[in-house]
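Build the 3D complex.
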Amino acid sequence: MMNRQESRELELYLHIPFCVRKCLYCDFLSRPGNREEIREYAGLLAEEIRLWGQQLSREDYRVVSVFIGGGTPSCLAGEEILLLGQAWRESFVLESEAEITIEANPGMIDPGVERVWRQAGINRASLGLQSARNQELKTLGRIHTWEEFVESYQLLRRAGFDNINIDLMSGIPGQDLESLRETLQRTVELQPEHISAYSLILEEGTPFYQMEQEGKLETVSEEMDRRMYQYTKEYLQQQGYHRYEISNYARDGRECIHNCGYWQGREYLGLGLGASSFLQGYRFANPSEQEGYRKQLQCIARDDWKHSAFLSPERQSREALMEEFCFLGLRMKEGISRREFNRRFGVRFTEVYGDVADSLLEKKLLAEDAFHDRIYLTDRGIDVSNTVLAEFLL
Amino acid sequence: MEKIQESHIRNFCIIAHIDHGKSTLADRIIEKTGLLTSREMQAQVLDNMELERERGITIKAQTVRIVYKAKNGEEYIFNLIDTPGHVDFNYEVSRSLAACEGAILIVDAAQGVEAQTLANCYLALDHNLEIMPVINKIDLPSADPQRVKAEIEDVIGLDASDAPLISAKMGTNIEDVLEQIVEKIPAPAGDENAPLQALIFDSIYDAYKGVIIFCRIFEGSVKKGDEIQMMATGAKAEVVETGVFGAGQFIPSQGLSAGMVGYITASLKNVKDTRVGDTVTLRSRPCKEALPGYKQVQPMVYCGMYPADGAKYQDLRDALEKLQLNDAALQFEAETSIALGFGFRCGFLGLLHLEIIQERLEREYNLDLVTTAPGVIYHVYKTNGEMVEVTNPSNLPDPSEIEHMEEPVVAAEIMVTTEFVGAIMTLCQERRGSYQGMEYLEETRALLKYDLPLNEIIYDFFDALKSRSRGYASLDYELKGYVPSELVKLDILINREEIDALSFILHKDTAYERGRKMCEKLKGEIPRQLFEVPIQAAIGSKIIARETVKALRKDVLAKCYGGDITRKRKLLEKQKEGKKRMRQFGSVEIPQQAFMSVLKLDDE
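Done.
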């Protein structure tokens, strides 16, 4: 188990569950909220940060990243952001180089607030663009245009944000390689430090899923989807963005620390409605409705978090941790290390996963760089990553 | 127990088409005779197997003895012998009938006479039973008792003028039925001093008592300590107990004598020794001859049954052995399949029997099974003059060694309303039926007679019959014999590998169509793999149909957001779970469901 003497890395995730309007493909926890609600929620969130600070005050954690996600965190007013920033700084030990990200919706940033973000210590921004074509944005149900996006981007640059991510999407109904090329080109011209490029996935419960079931959504074929993926990868690599995870690209040294944490098994604390945590071998999530969330706060104000009925923390078994080591680690381009596995679990990788790995290596879904002790997904393995990763469940 | 005069015994059964209310009437009779309070009644006392209740049919004959105080002030013993209600169990039905002097014929007041009604009626007449018609379901809005009475008289030729009009469900006019049983059904007339002659009409295995023989004493008597012998199987044993059937319980008696219906237990371990239809007699004083009509039941339908999990092979064997203790008609022997591993080739009386056994194995023994397509016994005449019986397509000799083959044919009677005659005749033609004639039973209904190859009706004939007649057609059949036929073996190749468990024997004219359908069906059942998978149907080396399962191109997880690993894990687990239900053939994974789905190629 982990060494108690050594200070431990921790990540904070703050969930802001409000959106002006839900996009047609979105299945995250969010809903419209009025000013009053948002203010009240920010108060609860700051309170929660402080309570956790107390809960963990005797453990030697240092926070390496904070990620304010949503929903739409940019709907928070300046003073609310300051309140949250104050809360995490006063409650946790922050590493000096800590990566602090806020997600922002293009066209939704009140002029001036971006400077407050800087004041609050936020040093990275993530903008959801998805496409440079307004028609495609409309299809997705986004509420901004390309032009509004550029305006927001420049606003952030001017405020001093030198680490910006842009989210893109491929496989948008009606999209073709040409329009994808245009989106990539226009995005790269803006010179962001990081680009996330995901395929559209139709999640149950979303309007898109419903439309697809009714045959009213013209999705791109699987072949086209994979061609788009390849195209994106090659295009971005040429432009100096290396792929470090299945769908994430960055300039050297600009990989997202926060996201890597999830894949490398780092501990993280999810704060806010419905947020998930992984702490001291336990996985748990906050209640996803307001009332339960409030009660959970009262609970950890009095009692140890491990006893909270609202979190019902579940200790991950050794097997589960082994599985996660593999199915999360393999999302990274560099993949997993046999030696690291042996060290972490005290059992040889070969003993647990020898057959699985051999068969996947033989099928060329995995590849191994024995010299550097890395096992990673091949291009084909990435295309069918679900199939590959499911093999690592014991 | 006080001595019962034979003149005060009535042995009878109830015959009816499925769903015409046999079990419900039996319940009412038991209720009205007052041996049970309403509260003690299970919903249907006679059908006590869970499965039977779900399917609304009787599988094993149940029997009950009741006491009825008639209007004349006398007490009568009624032995109600239940009969199985499906054509698969025709032989059992005939033995149950043979144990009676009379039969109550139930006819649905709305539906009227059906093929099974007719078939059972003729069977009862064959056994010289006094048939007492009863018209049930008079509470239905569509009931037309007068028309049905006329139909019984016209079609069957029975006097239905004073047939009780009842509703077994509502309990209406049940008294009339009870009185008529006393009046109309003859009392038994055996000699209790003659040598013992008892008919076995059922036997079950009980973990504590061993085999329990259900029998009707025709002559003589039997009591505890007697040495008995089965005349056909030759099994001998000493009687441990005799008794009669209470509702849902065994009531021991001093002995059983001529005219009575009851049970005998002896130190017998297997129902194979006490075959239905055999005659029980005393070793010390045997009767001159056995009761007529005994035959050893032979399975008509065979299929392979394999445990989904190979490690459960022994469990499957144990379960089959246990079921066989109670079901002499079930046969099985070990076999192996390249595709499915170790399992058993099992023989059944018919498809329903097969389905019942399969469900019991799954439900009562918690086994997950893969079943191969059911087939019949083919007679294969080889060029060297030898004849072999083939039930497993894999055992078919090389075509070069086959001189000719024969397949079993049944004589089928289908009763149908005239508007559907055309549709049903088309169906019979499609199934290679040979028309034998048609009788108009009345203006609106006809009895169609066809000779049909058994292998054409064991798949989905009954379903097709029902769907093409909107549920109005009914079917009865019996084995007629073997006829030469141009049969071929159809093989299914998945990714160019023959899957032996999917092979089957069929007529060459239907091979193309069925091969095409199977490929289509399999295409829908086999999930996309990492490479393209061809599915082919072949006769010998000739490919007659092909489908392709395209390669899986994309299978990716959605954005891993906000650290919700649990959700990703669930997705992967779902995927893994699906894989568990697959069987690996070479590099292809085939879900077990695929094997089952080709058993029922729907009649579009």
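Chain B touches chain A at residues 530, 552-566, 568-569, 571-573, 575-576, 579 (CB under 8 Å).
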